[in-house]
Amino acid sequence: MLAESPEPISDFASDPILKLMVAHSVKDVAHVLGMDPERFFYVVQRAQDGSYYKTFTIPKKKGGVRVISAPKKGLGIAQTRLATILNKHYRPKPFVQGYVKKQSFLTNAKLHERQKWVLNLDIKDFYPSITFPRVRGLFMSKLFGFNDRVATILARITTTKDGLPQGARTSPTIANLIAYTLDRNLVALATRHRLTYSRYADDITFSSSRREVPADLVRGWEPQFGNRELDLGSDLLNSFKDSGFAINTAKTRIAFSYERQEVTGLVVNRSANVWRKDISRMRMVLHSARAHGAEKAAQVWIGKEGTADKFWLFVSGWLSYFAQVRGKDDPVVTKLCKLAIISGLKGIEWIEKGADMVREFDVFLSHASEDKARARRLKDKLESVGVRVFFDETSITWGDSIVEKINHGLLKSSFFMPFLSENFTSKGWTNKELNSAIAMNANRKGRILPIKDEGFSVEDNYPLLNETLYQVWPKVGEDEFLGKIADAILLKIQFDHESHPDLG
Questions:
Q1: Could you tell me if 36 and 279 are in contact, meaning their C-beta atoms sit under 8 angstroms apart?
Q2: Do 119 and 254 contact (CB within 8 A), yes or no?
Q3: Closest by Cα among 380, 367, 342 to 483
Q4: HSE-up of 9 (CA within 13 Å, CB side)?
Q5: What is the pTM of this model?
Q6: Fewest CB atoms within 10 A around its CB: which of 114, 184, 252, 433?
Q7: Rounded to an integer, what distance in angstroms lies between the CA atom of residue 269 and that of residue 352?
Q8: Which helix or strand (DSSP H or E) is residue 323 part of?
Q9: What is the C-alpha to C-alpha distance for residues 250 and 245, in angstroms, rounded to an integer?
């Protein structure tokens, strides 16, 4: 069953789609794609036999390899230009998350966070099952309306060995268009039962905030816990059958809130996150490079064909993946970046910057020199319980650049603790430190922990901090107050570590 478009074709006179609608020959199509007609004819004749593709494999994250068929120059240019034309008219629905601008494996996973259950399905042989006749039929459908000759030409340059090639620029959009009927059927099923539905390429996910699993989707499973064999509902099975696709039963899984729920490689029980074992594994990878060198580490983690260059590409790819999910300034990511640099990775600017962001201090203690006696007592109390404190008289030594050390301390501290007083207000240095801390922590709530002197007005002096809860340094009961502050900051540090654990 061919895909039908939810969107009409544009009617601009200069639209390449319209030019393809009135085209009748290889020469016409070549002109629309900006190709030399004779060379394009040769490409069309040879595109199906695989001679215009370079085939290679890349390792999958969970083992095995993925076969990539990358088009060679002439065919690649034609596919790239056709992909641009197709994408101009393709208007994906929100549930289509794969190969769509501003969508990713991460946005897909976030749709299914904190659900009672998550059902994962996989389309069997997704690209290979989208054959030459199906692609030709798509181009002849009312979505495009091309004549049979033009549809045949376009199908020839976008398929090889009777399937979509993994590696062609046109394949993702064509696959999404062909899968439209399947999406439509499954969305109707999801809407009927108030479920969340999304598709990322061949990965399909249903989830729900309700405990009940509709029988239209899954009639039952055995055993009740652990690895289950699912009895899928007839409506679900018919949706696939009617759309010309099949389910890969080996990758069908339902997981409940008390189990690990996974969507496009991320754990979604709470907020979408990477697997703990992946971060732990990367630590082992980097340790092996540091201990034995990248060449030997490559042999272990990549295989016999591994080289130092391939090893660092492997590492940087994983670091990019972690950074995309958790953020480049995430403490776990920055620590891994630093380990990578220590282990020998060079020349990747964002990783070098990430390594430089590793926190060395728990607290930056900012104060005026007139208040140093009290600030020193606070510093001593914090350090007595194991808190790492940036304190000027111990963190800046003879010969150091004061400006560089202050900036370093601000960047490397998890929390900024200013002691606000009339003395603090009158000093240039302390105000610069406070302003820098506010700017650095604009998107990191709860990082500025003010303490004020009794009688000092935060509202009058620092209105930006007026809505921030602060502590008041008392005139009596100082020991009890210092103990209270130390306990509170320890809890914050512990919570911070739990929110960004080293193992995910």
A1: no
A2: yes
A3: 380
A4: 20
A5: 0.72
A6: 114
A7: 32
A8: helix 308-326
A9: 15
